[in-house]
Amino acid sequence: MTQSYHIPVLPDESIGGLNIHPDSNVVDATFGGGGHSRLILKSLGDEGRLFAFDQDEDAAGNLIDDHRLFFIRHNFRYIKNFLHFYGVKQVDAIFADFGVSSHDFDVAERGFSFRFEGKLDMRMNQDARTDAAKVVNEYTEKQLISLFRMYGEIKNARRLAVSICKKRIERPINTTTQLKDIAAECAPRATENKYLAQVFQALRIEVNDEMEALKEFMDAAKDLLQPGGRLVVLTYHSLEDRLCKHFMKSGNFDGNLEKDFYGNVISPFKLINRKVIVPGAEELRNNSRSRSAKLRVAEKI
Predict the structure, then answer these.
(1) CB 37 within 8 Å of CB 15
(2) How many whole angstroms separate alpha carbon 280 and alpha carbon 291?
(3) E strands along 2-78, which residues?
(4) What's the rounded mean pLDDT across residues 54-72?
(5) Considering Cα of 69, then 74, then 77, then 81, what sign does the dihedral take?
(6) pLDDT digits (tens, 9 = 90+) for 195-213
(7) How far is CA 299 from CA 88, 259, 284, 287, in A?
(8) pLDDT at 3
(9) Which residues of 189-200 are buried (b: 16+ CB within 10 A; e: fewer)?
């Protein structure tokens, strides 16, 4: 387990954006290594409560011994259901770090990274039935083209899908190295690593239904936050950031602005930082995981 697994990204900006009071009810939707949760607990008083979600069983190994922490091992898309189970109808602040933990990238058998030989898995929830190998070997050529275009923004998605379909006839594609070798043949010169990252990202998003889960979470967060409550999100690629940006600005995922009779924008949120927050040079040197991070903060009206 690498140290960076425990280093929270944009820590001061994240905690400051949550505007926590001692008796706040706070949600950390992505517990992971517990880095942000530890900082949230430091800001809470004895009467405050932190509800932390994570579907990854490895995250349970990082639990903090604190009576104010309630750990819920489920996907954050079900946040409303589980908070209602605890009798919580509204909260004061919600935080989400949508990045895959460095720990998952560094464990070869999880299959998230093309840097290691491992099983083509990519499931954040190890109980899920569909892994990356199933997608690569059983999806139709048309389905593969669609997911690589949509979730990887890969320009030659058709060529990649055709190559995969040809290779899997010879033998099943079950390892990260097999997929890496096939994708590398389709990668543009001088940008192979970027291309491979896009391929693996697209599969990870598909396997974990990440975009739909994000939408469900954001909708639930809007309903759960009480007026004046804060929503703070960290994203790491353009697809996530675009959805969060639109939703925080307009209350919908298309970014369509609804206006009242006087031309004022009608939205459930007020933007706290109109310009996205990114890590500074020092943080980038100390924590490589923060490289593509973008932080957005909104307040429920």
Answers:
(1) no
(2) 9
(3) 25-28, 49-53, 69-72
(4) 92
(5) negative
(6) 999 999 999 999 999 999 9
(7) 19, 19, 27, 28
(8) 40
(9) eeebeebbebbb
pLDDT tens-digit map of 5-48: 568 999 999 999 999 999 999 999 999 999 999 999 999 999 99
**Block residue for tokens 């298309």:** 254
CB 129 within 8 A of CB 209: no
Q: DSSP labels for 232-300?
A: EEEE-SHHHHHHHHHHHHHSSTT-PPEE-TTS-EE-SEEES-SSPB---HHHHHH-GGGTT-EEEEEEE
Q: Is the pLDDT of residue 280 over 60?
A: yes
Whether 193 has a pLDDT exceeding 70, the answer reads yes
C-alpha to C-alpha distance for 271 and 75, rounded to whole angstroms: 26
Is 3-102+210-300's fold the same as 106-208's?
A: no
- Are 110 and 121 a contacting pair, CB within 8 Å? yes
CB 253 within 8 Å of CB 109: no
CA 88 to the chain's CA centroid: 24
Cα–Cα dist 66/206, whole Å: 35
For 3-102+210-300, which CATH superfamily applies? Vaccinia Virus protein VP39 (3.40.50.150)
Instruction: Evaluate the CA torsion angle 28, 30, 34, 35 in order and state its sign.
Output: negative
Using the structure block, give the residue that is written with the tokens 């880095």: 35
Q: What are the domain boundaries of the chain? A: 3-102+210-300, 106-208
Residue 281, class by beta-carbon neighbours within 10 Å (0-12 exposed, 13-18 middle, 19+ buried)? exposed
Contacts of residue 243, Cβ cutoff 8 Å, sequence gap at least 6:
211, 214, 215, 218, 253
Do 117 and 175 form a contact (C-beta atoms < 8 A)? yes
Looking at domain 106-208, its CATH class is mainly alpha
**Which residues 6+ apart lie within 8 Å of 22 measured at CB?**
43, 44, 45, 46, 47, 48
